[in-house]
Amino acid sequence: MLHALGHHSLGLLSHYQKCRNHKLFSAVKIAIDAGYRHIDGAFVYFNEHEVGQAIREKIAEGKIKREDIFYCGKLWNTCHPPELVRPTLEKTLKILQLDYVDLYIIELPMAFKPGDALYPKDENGKFIYHETDLCATWEALEACKDAGLAKSIGVSNFNRRQLEMIMNKPGLKYKPVSNQVECHPYFTQPKLLEFCRQHDIVIVGYSPLGTSRDESWVNVSSPPLLKDPVLNAIGKKYNKTAAQIALRFNVQRGVVVIPKSFNPQRIRENFQIFDFSLTEQEMKEIEALNKNVRYVELLMWRDHPEYPFNDEY
C-alpha cells in the first residue's frame, strides 16, 4: 500500500535522489512494521533497488516471509512491443532480487517509441509515440504469468473500451485482475467501478488522498482533498484525520488504496482505518463530494491515439 512516486531521468543518482531513496528505504521498512503488505512499485520510479532491499531485510529479520508481501510492478510505455515485455519484467526482478512479482500491470495504455529514453522526444520536443497493440502486449504478459514471473496480471489507467478490447480478445487466457486508476472522494469513478465489479476486476485507487499541487503535472482546479470540510467533520466524530476518512471510504466500497507517504507517523496513521466503519449516510455524504475532475490528467499525451481519458469512463 506504499505508493512511492519519483519520475527522474536515468543517469547518475543526484545527492537529492540518494537522500530520497534512503528515505524511501526507511519508509518501506516502517510500513512493513506497521502492517502494510501491498507495495506498489514501478521500474520508472527508480527506487526498486531500495524497495527490494527493504523487503529482503525484513524477510531476513524474520518479520515477514516473501509470500506475505504483495508487490506490484509495472510495464512502462516504451516496453509495449511483445518481445520487450519479458526482458523488462526480468530486469525489474533482477533489481528487486526477487523471483516473481505478485502483480504485473501495463502502466498506461499508450505505447512510446522503444529505446533508452523513457520519455522519447523529437528535436521539437514532441513526444514520439509507437503503434499501440494492447492485445499483443497482453499476450506477452500472459506468457510471463505462465512462466511464473508474475502471479497475476492487470492494467492501469485503462478505460472501459480498452478493458473490453482485452477481455474480448480471441484466445484470451487470463483477464486483467485489476485496473489501477485515480480514485478518491473528489473523483469516485462510479461507472468504471460498477463495470469492473461486474467483471470481477479489482479497482486499485491511486492518489486516494488527492495529490501534490505541482502545476507542471497536476490539475489544481480541484481544491486539496484533505482540507475538505465534510471529510474533516466526519473525522472529528471518529477521532480520525481527513486522510483516514478518505481511505476508509474507498476501502469500504471495495477499492484497494495505495497512499504514498515518507512520513513515519502518517504511514502508521494511513494503516489505522480498520477499527471503525462509516455509516451508510456518511458514505452517501462522501460520495456526494464527487466533482468528476481528475487531478492526474496526463494532458501532455492527450494527442496519443490510445489516450484513455477522452472517453466518459
From TrEMBL:
Q: Which InterPro entries match?
A: AKR, AKR1D1, Aldo/ket_reductase_CS, NAD(P)_OxRdtase_dom_sf, NADP_OxRdtase_dom
Where does the record place the catalytic residues?
Y45 (proton donor)
Q: Which SUPFAM superfamilies match?
A: NAD(P)-linked oxidoreductase
Q: Which residues form a coiled coil?
A: none
A Pfam cross-reference name: Aldo_ket_red
Enumerate the residues binding substrate.
H130
Q: Give GO BP annotations, semicolon-separated.
A: bile acid biosynthetic process
- State the Gene Ontology terms under molecular function: Delta4-3-oxosteroid 5beta-reductase activity
Site entry (Lowers pKa of active site Tyr), positions: K74
List residues of the NADP-dependent oxidoreductase domain: 17-290
* Family from the record: Belongs to the aldo/keto reductase family.
Q: What is this protein called?
A: Aldo-keto reductase family 1 member D1
Q: Which organism is it from?
A: Serinus canaria
Q: Gene for this protein?
A: AKR1D1
